[in-house]
Amino acid sequence: MTKRFSYYESEMEGLSIAEIESRLAPSLQKQIGYCYANSTFYKRKFQEAGADPKDIQTFDDLRKLPVFMTKEDERACQEESRLEQGHPFGTHVCAPVEDLYLTGTTSGTTGVPTFTYTFTKNDLDFLAPRLAHRLALCGVGKGDRGLFFFTLGIYATTMTLWGLRLLGALPIDIDARAGTETFLKFANLTKPTFLACTPSLALYLIDKCPKFLGYPVSELKLKGLLTTGEPGIQDPNIKQKLEEAYQCPSFDYWSPAGHAPGVSCGAPLYQGLHAVAPEVCTSYFDLIDPVTQEPVPLEHGAVGQMVHTSLHRQACPLVKYAYGDVVQISLDECPWCGFKGIRAKLVGRADDMLIVKGVNVYPAAVKAEVMKFQPRVTGQMRIVLDAPPPRVEPPLKLKVEYNGQLAGAEQNGLAERIAQAVHDSLRLRPEVSLTPAGTLPRSTSKTPVFEKAYE
């Protein structure tokens, strides 16, 4: 067993889920009252739901409320505040605009970017130590250099840099739009001890490092690889490939919408994101069915879309925000590190979910089956859509890159084996077409999962 992962607030150690909910209930009550008093958006949402903020005393009370916000609602909020109040932060902003300290947007890959990552100084003072704790559990400490390779003009990941600095580590943040060659030259110059990027980019660098630096990524001599932004090391094939190539442990971390801080331990077999700071929000405790939006009971193995409600936020607090992440919850003790709190594995994005012959299909689950065929395949794939999702007229079409030289009969055989593996796992048989290595475009941010043939 490795070092035991722990809560940021040590007082929570040993508490049951019910006891943690009870401990956090006063924060919930205070936050709900604050949002109702300071936001026209939330006041309207409570009135539409026929609910009184004073009735929300417990997490169970909260779970009974309908979803108040989605990304489309947030975009509408932003447009309304832009036109009527002269700022883009939304009508759900609760703090005075002049008190905002840091702002940034989501990636905008599914539409107009949203200013979800907007904080006051007090917000960051509360959040940063918890982000630092999450990184410390991965081994980051004083004197380390963390090379961050994201599209930093978006800022969604830069809040993590506040936590990094608290640890006495030095962030080296490079905008991914500078390109892979520039990034690798900076890596060679600065000798980082940790690299943070998307898992697909980490895989991409394995091939590009020898080309631009003349040596393999193992020669970067990293102490750890920190991945976020998309499903990655929860797939054992991806985790193995990254750790063998970089010769260091890999960790998954996230804080979607600046909420739900989570981090994976160093277990050989991925054990999920450990919810090490539940005092930030209710996200791990509040799940809904991504289709019906009905509450999903919080029990071991439960699958549902996380719904974010802030417990400590001034600037743009979230209440019942269905952000899109669908997770599977574990409530047992982590068999590797002994963490006793909630753990979550990302199943996929609600807005990526497809419906094929009545079956809900997430691209991450399809890719997990494709990855089992490495090294015969590169791991790059696309789901080809002939019409707008989520409903797909069968068969589901997959385009998969293969490695090396394959004759026609060999291609047919590999395609059939991939189709059978997907069928055995997901109970649907895709139509698989193979394409040579390097023909599917890579991205320095999130690699797309769909090829939209209808556009």
UniProtKB/TrEMBL annotation:
Keyword Ligase tagged: yes
Region (Disordered): 433-455
Family matches, as Pfam families: AMP-binding_C_2
AMP-dependent ligase C-terminal domain segment(s): 358-447
Keywords: Ligase
SUPFAM superfamilies named in the record: Acetyl-CoA synthetase-like (SSF56801)
Gene Ontology MF term list: ligase activity
Name by which UniProt lists this protein: Phenylacetate-CoA ligase
Source organism of the structure: Dethiosulfatarculus sandiegensis
Lineage: Bacteria, Pseudomonadati, Thermodesulfobacteriota, Desulfarculia, Desulfarculales
